[in-house]
Amino acid sequence: MTATLKAIGIGKRFGALAVLEGIDFDLSSSAAIGIVGPNGAGKSTLMAVLSGALVPSAGRIEMDGRDITELGAAERSGLGVMRTHQIPKPFLGLTVLENVLVGATHAGAAQGEAAYALALGALDTAGMRRLANRPAESLGLLDRKRLELARALATRPKILLLDEIGGGLTDAEAEELVQMIKGLRAEGIGIVWIEHIVHLLMQVVERLICVDAGRIIADGSPAAVMAHPDVVRAYMGGV
To answer: What residues does each domain of the chain span?
Structure first.
């Protein structure tokens, strides 16, 4: 069954400061949207609103037609909306497998052998099975990012929110990541991907949104958006 996530007129204010204003888009499973913009554009705030970490000041979020605006991140993960973080946040003191089991048993709502199978499947998808018994704190950056992804996959997401997951990777590691995300799309998972490394997004997404000063300034095909004069000015530093 196709899942749909909608952002409708999303605004977010912190006191007098408007960080987001009038953000609209929708995403169906198997589709992929990339979000770009300069530092301070509001991208991280948007990700926090979509995931349930922040409640918007205006507008609403819908999942399959249901208003989920007031639901927190834990409740949204139970509905199939899951986020990875720009800075990986493994549970230190646990092994890689134990970290992923947390996702499987809590947000994934699996128990016993079912949770174990779900966790191992997520590790396989993320290329982490060989490190299942490794302490999470011993992992390098790429493997921490893979673990972050595996833990999210163990929740059985319908919509996956990726927050700059490509940052800090080598070219070869980034290419592995691209192929992995393409595979997730092929499995029917919808992707919203915020990323500074635009050429990675261009390989995965069919739609690109550029945000500047909390507003959408361009929305369309990746090539058209990156050639848009306002995007060149705001994001690429052109004139």
So the answer is: 1-80+157-239, 90-156
Q: How far apart are CA 7 and CA 20, in angstroms?
A: 12
CB-based burial label for 171 (10 Å; 0-12, 13-18, 19+): exposed
Within the chain, residue ranges assigned H as helices are 43-51, 73-79, 96-105, 112-125, 141-153, 171-186, 198-204, 222-227, 229-234
pLDDT digits (tens, 9 = 90+) for 125-161: 888 999 999 999 999 888 898 899 999 999 999 999 9
Tell the CATH topology of 1-80+157-239: Rossmann fold (3.40.50)
Are the C-beta atoms of 49 and 212 separated by less than 8 Å?
no
d(CA 73, CA 75): 6
Q: How far apart are CA 9 and CA 216, in angstroms?
A: 11
Q: What are phi and psi of 79, to 5 degrees?
A: -90, -5
- Name the pTM for this structure: 0.89
